[in-house]
Amino acid sequence: MIKKVIKLVSRLNIPTIYFNLKYLPLRQACFLPILVSRRTYLKVVSGKIEINAPLKTGLIQIGYGGVGIFDKERSRTIWEVSGTVMFNGKCNIGHGSKISVSSSGTLSLGSNFVITAETSIIVQTRVEFGDNCLLSWDSLIMDTDFHKIKNDFGIQINSPKPVLVGNNVWIGCRCLVLKGAQIPSNSIVGANSLVSKVLDKQNALYAGNPCKLIKENVNWEP
Asked: Quick check: 178 and 142 in contact, CB under 8 A?
């Protein structure tokens, strides 16, 4: 048993050990539920992580995987978190992805959440994904405009708004999902689409800039 433990530890990297010990109580960290690639830049490692699922080694993977059109050896994942990240089950954040959560923000990821590669999520208030969501590469999801826009009375008119995504949603490559967007369960968002409003029909295909309903009564398979 001791030999097996030594062998396992020797195969691990410093980011994985540091990350688990930083965010989790020792009794949870010893399971090493979060694996972090050596190509991950841990820019800000504060705030808190909640894991709402039975713990096992590698339940959550950050910075791994590979997509043929990218050079994963030179692609660096970035973790910049001072807020709260909630993992509600198995999760795979692919290489080159960027996760940024401010101190006032909460990112909630459902079970079987997958980013294939090179996608960014930026949170100032709340971004929430349901179960079985797939995000393709080169997409950007953010709940803020960063810069304030004010009217003649000095009142901000572009405050951050939550982004809410249901269960079993596939977001295609090079999509832009902005503050206030809501994507219902069992939906597909076509490649290169802009979502900045509430989409209301489930089992539907949406696409375009701005995003609009293309087809109803559809399903997709992982």
From this structure: yes
